[in-house]
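Figure 6 in text form: structure in, sequence out.
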């Protein structure tokens, strides 16, 4: 790491180019980050700190900025900024620190910039690697139904999709790219918003095994109900998937509250523990507002990070 001789604020233009070219974020995101960091630059100037270099930004300075954000009046009624709004500015600052790390410029570690916590923040339940492996091993893959269930669990954890999105997948979406080691899919999520999800090479191994059992049927749904009666839909329902996950969780001796959303939380915390920024995670999860993604901010806690460094990731099988 090198100590930059250039003032921190003078790196912001290069940072905005970086999130555009190397991170591939939208022009709107780039515009927002520029606006958020402009507030930080103005505050540094008012505090007579606009000369500081990246390595001179300390936790104490960040704390003073957080106090400023929490007490600043906003709007015609001069109301304090909401916690979620404060976090927009802090997330932009965290991304700037990530940029410095990518450029080998000595700067404050991202984890030192804590996000504001809402009093009603929800606790996130997620499975560690050992628990995930145990859950995934529960289906009897010698049967078509068990192979289907194993594939559902693998795709679920690989993509972080909502259970409603998973149940809507069609076989043609996968067949068109079945020769790829890993694939990306465009799906329509909550509120009709379209986003891209990714099925890993590991999960695709199971998808291909499952599709080999479907060579002769012409059913549209990717995941079908083998026990459906003639008048019943072929597509496996969300309720069936929910009950399936609960069944295997009980067999694996996992907590009774292991729900589909716990698997989605496990996907999110795994990515965040590996250094993925909340803004990127928001895109993965299909959240309309960053405040919905902020419930995962606790993963930056050092203890949880150390746990994931020891246990994260699934080995290929």
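Output sequence:
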């Amino acid at each position: 790491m090198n100590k930059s001789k250039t003032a921190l604020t003078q790196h912001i233009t290069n940072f905005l180019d970086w999130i555009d070219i190397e991170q591939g974020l939208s022009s709107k995101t780039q515009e927002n980050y520029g606006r958020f960091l402009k507030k930080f630059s103005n505050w540094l100037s008012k505090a007579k700190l606009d000369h500081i270099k990246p390595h001179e930004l300390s936790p104490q300075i960040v704390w003073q900025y957080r106090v400023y954000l929490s007490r600043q009046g906003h709007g015609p009624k001069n109301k304090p900024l909401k916690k979620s709004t404060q976090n927009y500015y802090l997330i932009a600052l965290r991304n700037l620190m990530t940029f410095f790390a990518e450029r080998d410029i000595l700067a404050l570690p991202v984890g030192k910039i804590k996000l504001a916590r809402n009093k009603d923040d929800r606790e996130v339940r997620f499975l560690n690697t050992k628990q995930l492996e145990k859950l995934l091993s529960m289906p009897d893959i010698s049967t078509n139904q068990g192979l289907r269930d194993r594939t559902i669990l693998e795709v679920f954890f690989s993509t972080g999709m909502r259970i409603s999105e998973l149940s809507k997948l069609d076989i043609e979406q996968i067949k068109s790219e079945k020769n790829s080691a890993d694939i990306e899919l465009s799906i329509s999520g909550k509120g009709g918003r379209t986003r891209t999800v990714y099925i890993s090479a590991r999960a695709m191994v199971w998808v291909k095994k499952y599709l080999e059992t479907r060579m002769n049927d012409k059913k549209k749904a990717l995941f079908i109900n083998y026990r459906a009666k003639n008048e019943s839909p072929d597509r496996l329902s969300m309720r069936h998937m929910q009950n399936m996950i609960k069944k295997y969780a009980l067999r694996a001796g996992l907590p009774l509250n292991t729900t589909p959303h716990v698997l989605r939380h496990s996907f999110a915390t795994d990515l965040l523990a590996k250094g993925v920024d909340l803004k990127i995670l928001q895109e993965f999860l299909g959240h309309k507002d960053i405040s919905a993604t902020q419930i995962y901010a606790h993963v930056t806690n050092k203890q949880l990070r150390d746990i994931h460094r020891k246990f994260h990731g699934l080995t290929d099988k």
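Caption detail: The longest strand covers residues 183-188.
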